[in-house]
Amino acid sequence: MAAQRKTSRYVVPVAVAGIAAATIGLVPALAASGDPDLPEITAQQLIEKIAASDTQTLSGTLKVSTDLGLPAFDGLLGGLAGGAAQGGGEGEGSADPAAQLTKLVSGTHTLKIAADGPERQKLTLLDGKEQYSLVHNGDEVWAYDSRSNEVFHEKGVDADPGEDGPAPGKELPASPKDLADEVLKAAGDTTSITVGGTANVAGRDAYRLVIEPKQQGSTVDAITIAVDAATGTPLKFTLDSTSGGKPVLDAGFTKVDFGRPAASEFDFTVPKGAKVTEGDDVEASHKDVEKDLEKEFGGLGDLGLGGAGGFGEGDVNVIGEGWTSIARLDSGAPAPKTDEAPKEVQGFLDSLGEKVSGKFGSGTVFKTKIVNALMTDDGKVYVGAVTPEALVDAANAAE
């Protein structure tokens, strides 16, 4: 029974990168050939249109561009996750989704997706002549990396786990609609929502829903969702930071078809000579890597860089509300020393970290364009989509 209730860790967040994973996802390059002339619609009507959309079948191409303002984050996580899958290495030769899909954390990528309800989805990540495919069909997941000729297989995946968590069919592949739903759920009095004109996305007429924080101190400038005028399906999702520059995330379709894909699209045959790794074996290896990280770098394993989730054993308290809410955690242990970290982790943390001090004492702020985290030297963690100054203020106020 437990095997039938398994919820896969490889199911792609849209999002993305450790502490930022909950808020971020995929991207598109949309051909804008002039704004279409569509009937007027209010923001409330457009939100209702999104809520009423029930697209179960589709196929298409996504162009994903992510700019978190990070260094080679995909190399770090790919190396750690790949090491878990293979017992070492750089992650390039692993079919484990935990290793491969961290590539979406930075740069621009082209993906092909297909979906036929909650039971069948397929995502293919194209990389020059090489490609990586992830297929969910019924209670099985297959993944194939053409570069290494390796296969990942997991059986017992439940498409309807009930209270155990979201079904893989709801998250694989990640889509602009998944992102839109999460943002609209969280919107409240702290949010301005307007209709910002129209657009042409993947050859389809769309309305632009613009979501902006009313509060000062958030790193989010605006979220723009292009909504298909005919079906209400979000076609493009763009997240802009107050720091300016390229969008943190720009996710959407360049081609889309809402017809049902052929059943053969979700068939998978192990290529000749390919090495097959079972999901249970990969999970055991991930746990070994987490133990090694904990041994080498203390609390770093609790930050989820070894494939685990969560920030440690302490309780999480939320300070504030809306766009400027900050999660506070007391790990109960001194902050790890970066000079004791594995080499690749040490370089990454040094490139992100900035020493700060205040009434709370001293600590390090780890910065991205959207999510920032303050780790105090006595083991407290403050994290949110807010400015570093807001984190320091929250730490000072807590003393």
Describe the structure.
This protein is α+β, with helices and mostly antiparallel strands. The protein has two domains: about 5-275, Lipoprotein localisation LolA/LolB/LppX (outer membrane lipoprotein receptor (LolB), chain A, Clam), CATH 2.50.20.10; about 310-399, 2-Layer Sandwich (TATA-Binding Protein), CATH 3.30.310. The protein contains eight helices and 18 strands. The protein has helices at about 45-50, 75-85, 95-100, 170, 175-185, 280-295, 345-350, 390-399, and strands spanning about 55-65, 105-115, 120-125, 130-135, 140-145, 150-155, 190-200, 205-215, 220-230, 235-240, 250-255, 275-280, 315-320, 325-330, 355-360, 360-365, 370-375, 380-385. The strands form two sheets. A twelve-stranded mixed sheet has the order 7-8-9-10-11-1-2-3-4-5-6-12. It is globular.
Short description:
The chain is α+β, with helices and mostly antiparallel strands. 21% of the residues lie in helices and 33% in strands. Strands 7-8-9-10-11-1-2-3-4-5-6-12 form a 12-stranded mixed sheet. The protein has a 6-stranded antiparallel sheet with strand order 13-14-18-17-16-15.
Q: Overall mean pLDDT score?
A: 75
Number of domains: 2
* Number of helical segments with 4 or more residues: 8
Going across the major beta sheet, what is the strand order? 7-8-9-10-11-1-2-3-4-5-6-12
> Uncertain runs with pLDDT below 50, 5 residues or more?
1-33, 73-92, 161-173, 296-313
CATH homologous superfamily heading of the largest domain: Lipoprotein localisation LolA/LolB/LppX
Computed over alpha carbons, the radius of gyration is 21 Å
Termini separation (Å)?
48 Å
Shape: globular
CATH architecture group name of the largest domain: Clam
Q: How many distinct beta strands?
A: 18
Estimate the helix proportion, in percent: 10-25%
- Largest sheet entry: 12 strands, mixed
Structural class: alpha+beta
CATH domain class name of the largest domain: Mainly Beta
- Please name the CATH topology of the largest domain: outer membrane lipoprotein receptor (LolB), chain A
